[in-house]
What we know:
Layout: H1 2-23, H2 26-37, H3 40-52, E1 64-66, E2 72-74, H4 87-100, E3 105-108, H5 111-120, H6 123-139, E4 141-148, E5 154-159, E6 164-168, E7 176-189, E8 192-203, E9 206-213, E10 216-219, E11 231-233, E12 236-238, E13 246-249, H7 258-280, E14 286-291, H8 298-308, E15 322-327, H9 332-349, H10 366-372, H11 374-404, E16 415-418, H12 427-436, H13 443-449, H14 456-475
Antiparallel strand pairs: 1-2, 3-16, 4-5, 4-13, 6-7, 7-8, 8-9, 9-10, 11-12, 14-15
Helix pairs in contact: 3-6, 4-6, 7-9, 13-14
Amino acid sequence: MDIWNAAMAQISSIIRRGHAARLSDKAFLEREITAWLHSPARQMQVKGVLYYEGQHDILRRQRTVIGEAGTLSAVENLPNNRLVDNQYGKLVAQKANYLLGQPFVVESRNAQHAACLKQVFDKRFLRTLKNAGKAALCGGIAWLHPHYDETGALVFRLFPAYEILPFWRDSEHTELDCAVRFYEVQGYNGSTPVIIQKVELFTLDGVRCFLWKNGSLIPDTAAPDGACAYVTADGKALNWQRVPLVAVKYNEGEIPLLARVKTLQDALDVMLSDFENNMQEDARNTILVLKNYDGTDLGEFRRNLAQFGAVKVRTEGDAQGGVETLEVQVNSENYKTILALLKTALIENGMGFDAKDDRLSGNPNQMNIQSMYSDIDLDANDMETELQAAFDSILWFVDAHLANTGQGDFAGDDVTITFNRDMLMNETEAIANCAASAGLLSEETIVAQHPWVDDPQAELARLKRQREEERQREYDPFTENPPRGIEPAGRVV
């Protein structure tokens, strides 16, 4: 077994060295980037962001009719409403706020370590993490880049999925060999605004900068030659021992949420738009049957009807002239039923919840609320598993920063990250259960479950301070507010 493990380790090392050698080949990178830019996976990542912003496929739809040859032809004289009912965007916001809407709790046995971590995981980081959760839902994966800002503080920058082409070391996508960032910036060619496409190659040696033109990599003359270091301290160029990109995944397959619900969202937009189209086609709700029309063509008939409100007909022999109508009724109940079914299917397939659920009517108990949240809770479990793995990498960079800046060497310390899910609850029932658990559970456990408490440790500290103050007042004979039934002792003159 030892011989086999040694052989496999040697083979893996050879493969990694060969992979790294290929990465230095400019043609290899150009082929990989070109294939990735036009890949279905990246197109779905882009659409995930566009759909969240409300830019759905329905906005590019044309009205068509059956032409003379029996084929569909685009027409411009029919109502062409393009309505968007963005239930998908609502799902993304629901999931991100459910898991990341509340501050998470950092716990460590080392009080100094916990205090340092809370300084890094400030409100700015909480906002970045929540946005990373939304980006992961839209793209299946998002990326956090640790770097130093102008003040020297360690911060994390968010890169969306469609900007990063990762080269993984393993098939489970847990370790990075290197990564390519492709992004666009606004620039000028003289006085003409142009879009400049840039490429950054992240490796252990630093970052290399290129321009992307006509499928080729061209060195960026505005960037330093060679690999630029990630960190500069005291005039020295420093690099992380890991590629400074942390993957924040929505699920283990890195599948965007849109992949589950796109067809349902498109159908919802189409049905809503078609209903509006049919309601606006007033002239077409009535089919006109002409008899001996005194005119040349149907275009003239429509113009006379619209302009004068009347048309001329004639009688020839026994053939009486006239205009008859056939009514076409638009059944709105059919549309309402289909729209309701589509919304329900979209919420179920997207594993969200309906805030207008019948289970919330009246005075819902906690079991009904938990039943309504069961789907989103299951999906949040998968996302939290990936987030916990991402925090292992985040903590590695934070601990390296703390060690390098002399704040302490905390490598190996056990840190627990607890996410506070933002779930509706019957607070009266929850508080009653907490009160009934006194004497059965520890005070720390009860406080952690109380619906009004966000930080259990801070609340326990406040309780301890309050009890000490009450104890001091109880035994201080000169207190201005003695306990009831006790008079302050007289002073000695």
